[in-house]
Amino acid sequence: MRIAMIGTGYVGLVSGACFSEFGVDVVCVDKDAAKIEGLHANRMPIYEPGLDALVADNVKGGRLSFTTDLKSAVSGADAVFIAVGTPSRRGDGHADLSYVYDAAREIAQSLTGYTVVVTKSTVPVGTGREVERIIRETRPDADFDVVSNPEFLREGSAINDFMRPDRVVIGAETDRARAVMKQLYRVLYLIETPIVFTSLETSELIKYAANTFLAAKITFINEIADLCEAVGADVHDVARGIGLDGRIGKKFLHPGPGYGGSCFPKDTLALVRTARDKGAPLRIIETVVAINDERKRKMADKVVAACAGSVEGKSIAVLGLTFKPNTDDMRDSPSLEIIPALQKAGASIRAFDPEGMEEARHMFSGVTFCENAYETLQSADAMVVLTEWNEFRALDFERVKSLLRAPILVDLRNIYNPADMVAAGFQYVSIGRPTPK
Ligand code: NAD
User: Fold this and answer.
1) Closest ligand 1 atom, CA of 263?
2) DSSP state at residue 88
3) I want to staple 258 with a disulfide (CB 3.0 to 4.6 A). Which of 97, 172, 295, 372 is the partner?
4) Residue pair 329/323 in contact by the 8 Å Cβ criterion
5) Active-site residue list
């Protein structure tokens, strides 16, 4: 089997590398010549644990290659995956499908023989049909089917998620297309991964329903955490107490500063738009979006409150900038809201992130970027944990205290034990947990 992967970002590069590991011949295509040039030198355009080794192995094995030439990659391929970005359209929250439709037009011009064109990008219901229409209009003679195969991998554990997924969802409407997809995912069939075959529209909706459900689950536990603070309860015990119920499940019950990242914010907004346009509004998700937006602002207020009600003229040390650990992805990270809010309240910000700084430098102004956690804490009036990177979990707290001007620690990811922090002499604030006196 031979496939072309159009778009070599977080999803395209990981999916392409994993398919090549499954034994498929993969050509990854990107418009961004610098990305492709880097990949030729085994320089990864993103930080994802294990990706460089996986790519190097499969390039060496002759199953994985990179190009900017879409035409050569598509002609003769059994399947062409569209894995380009679908960001929020400025102004209305709809998914911007221009990259997908541009790719479809380019693909159409290069099709030879029967080809399955697969949308791997997260796309609203109806996009697959439109891709089909565009290809048909551009190339009335082409022999092809359009399939929806949304991706559920998570940044930071993307390779394992792709290789051992909970399920694979395939929206395909002909036996020929289903046969090609089965062959591509043969390795996962062998390990009995559940494969959900369904229609194009249903497959497209499954992806949004999954992401918005997860966003709602996070938002639920965040609100319960706020209530815990108000009544003196412990949100982690609540999460465990409810999560052990199989109908609820343990995962995604960790409170924090609000969800962020390149998927949940844009996908919740896009589904809200689709639902409104179709006259079937999703009021739960609309509320989730509003609560999450407000939450990020509230987190800045929490820091201000911990600093005796004012950060005017104070220096705040921020540890972690990415929306979660083990990625360099800064898209829609809570830090992008919380840091400017603190600056607006008069604080100066010192910050460090293990992988996100290169991106972050373009996204903030007036922030002092530091080389490591300890340098960040130097003479700061408070320490704020925004991302739960492992290296922040085991700091030397005597050193931390000696570096800070005041021992104020605001932990927006609950990575420390409140009793330990109080015993170590910190004024410790976390989310949804009582701090011992
Ligand atoms: P990304 O921005 O990292 O990568 C997209 C790539 O596509 C870029 O490198 C861009 O240069 C390239 N591109 C755009 N148009 C092109 C064209 N016509 N020809 C060749 N290359 C082109 O995006 P991503 O994070 O990989 O997301 C891709 C899609 O997958 C989105 O729809 C997203 O919602 C979805 N998704 C993302 C994740 C995630 O964790 N990032 C998880 C599941 C699904």
Assistant:
1) 34
2) B
3) 295
4) yes
5) 263
H helix count then E strand count, the chain: 19, 14
Binding site membership of 263 for ligand 1 (Cβ less than 6 Å): yes
Domains of the chain, start order:
2-198 (3.40.50.720), 226-429 (3.40.50.720)
Q: Kindly report, residue by residue over 71-127, the tens digit of the pLDDT.
A: 999 999 999 999 999 999 988 889 999 999 999 999 999 999 999 999 999 999 999
- How distant, in Å, are the alpha carbons of 121, 182, 209 from that of 203? 12, 16, 10
Report whether 87 belongs to an annotated binding site.
no
Do residues 21 and 14 make contact, with C-beta atoms less than 8 angstroms apart? Answer: no
Instruction: Please tell me the distance from the alpha carbon of residue 429 to that of residue 24, in angstroms, as a whole number.
Output: 51
CA atoms of 417 and 406, how far apart (whole Å): 19
Cβ of 103 less than 6 Å from ligand 1: yes
262 C-alpha vs ligand 1 centroid, how far in Å? 10
Any ligand 1 atom below 6 A from CB of 116: no
Please indicate whether residue 73, judged by its CB atom, sits closer than 6 Å to ligand 1: no
How far does Cα 130 stand from its chain's mean position? Answer: 26
User: Which ipTM was obtained for this model?
Assistant: 0.99
Q: Is 143 annotated as a binding residue?
A: no
Secondary structure (3-state) at 239: helix
